[in-house]
Amino acid sequence: MRKILFLGSTLIFASILIPRALALNTPVGTALVPSTSLKESILFAFDRDPSISQQAAQMGIGQAQIDEARSGWMPQVALNGSTGHSQTTDSSGSLKNSASWGLTLTQLVYDFGKTNSSINQTSSQRDSYRYQLMDTLSDVAEKTALSYVEVKRYMDLTQAAEENVKALKNVQRLAQLRSNAGLSSNSDELQTETRIAGMQATVQQYNAALQSARARLAVLTGVNATQLSSLPQSLENKQDSLDTIDYSMIPKVLAASTMETSAQYGVDRAKSQYWPTVSVQGGRTRYESNNRSYWDDQIRLNVEAPLYQGGAVSARVRQAQGARAMATSQVEQARFDVLQKASVAQADWTGARGRMEAGKVQLQNALRTRDIYKNEYTLSKRSINDLLSVEQDVWQATLSKITAEYDGWSSAINYSSATNNLMSLVGIDNNAGVKIPDLS
């Protein structure tokens, strides 16, 4: 089994070899395995999806940006050297220099918040990248879970269609017996054959859809499982009220909020450009001249204060304020998107549950009716059309029930993903064989 390990801000993937028995319908680059579960499929997808490693690399960039900003408080050491002709003339005569070299040390003393604002800004950006990684993990888990549900859906639909073919063949045998006994005409058998052919076409249609769904899941996970375990019952928990959604725990909102904080530090950084920068500079330079060589030692306090830059600083401040306003609106947009997704998923889930209950009742009635019609057909109280009609009712009720059931699963997954509960509901946490970075 493959395992994915997150260490700090870097993703390190460790894989234990999976025996590869390639089948004709197995996508290239995937392994054929006997069975898998939803939790395992999501873990496989974490190992395979490139967007996760891309986001982890972005976190590494964010950390490097913080280190760069912090370097502003560190001493700046520079070597300098030059060669060529220069001449200095004063009251004591002329001095011709041919070369010079030396060392300069500069230490920032105070800059009215320029460096600190830069550090705070990049720190907030790095935090945003961490939350974006959390959101990426949730998106990959949701995408994989939905594909898993589609495979389960078409597996059940294919099985139900095959069972309906068997039921129609039972009706055909009953019609043959009555026809051989002279109790009915051959048209009963022909009608049944027509229905069987139509249902067999439906079986092939669902088989094709099943293979397509399997291929999509195999591409996401890197494995093609013969059997899929049942979906965890924890996903069926009734959704809470939309008013109770904790937006402070949702990565998408947290990422936008930290970017808003970063934008505020950007405003502070831009405004600090109005103020001077104070630093201490020391240096020692060696000069080689035509008649003597000497050392020039310096230590000074430097103050750099902008007087007029053509409105550049004011323009930077306005840009930063505009970026902050955009970041604020993105926080509201993130909350809006979460609420919309959760509300739609909750409504779909409620509707699917109602349709599934109605489908169960419809199926029970259709099955009872089928048993009665079969007995009455043997007594010549029902026609073959009645039997075929009730078999169609059984199929439609089964189809409605299966469709509603998996629509409910899909809605539950969408809701859990919107509220950042999907991975915990399927059993993925720090003690479940996968180590997710501490993003609190």
Automatic annotation (TrEMBL):
Name the keywords, alphabetized.
Cell outer membrane, Membrane, Transmembrane, Transmembrane beta strand, Transport
Q: Where in the cell is it found?
A: Cell outer membrane
Q: Which NCBIfam families match?
A: type_I_sec_TolC
In terms of PANTHER family, this protein maps to: OUTER MEMBRANE EFFLUX PROTEIN, OUTER MEMBRANE PROTEIN TOLC
A single cellular component GO annotation = efflux pump complex
This one is known as TolC family outer membrane protein
Report biased composition (Polar residues) as residue ranges: 79-97
Alphabetized InterPro entries for the sequence: OMP_efflux, T1SS_OMP_TolC, TolC-like
User: What is the species of this protein?
Assistant: Lelliottia wanjuensis
